[in-house]
Amino acid sequence: MTTSSHNKAAATPPPTSRFAVTLTGGIGSGKTTVANMFGELGAALVDTDAIAHRLSAPGGLAIAAISATFGTEFINQEGAMDRAKMRAHVFSDSTARKKLEAILHPLIRSETAREASEAQGDYVMLVVPLLVESADWKKRAGRVLVVDCSVETQIARVMLRNQLSRTEVEAIIAVQASRAQRLAAADDVIENDADAAALKPQIARLHAEYARLAKTNDVQHL
Question: Which domains does the chain have, with CATH numbers?
Answer without folding.
Answer: 1-43+121-222 (3.40.50.300), 50-120 (no CATH)
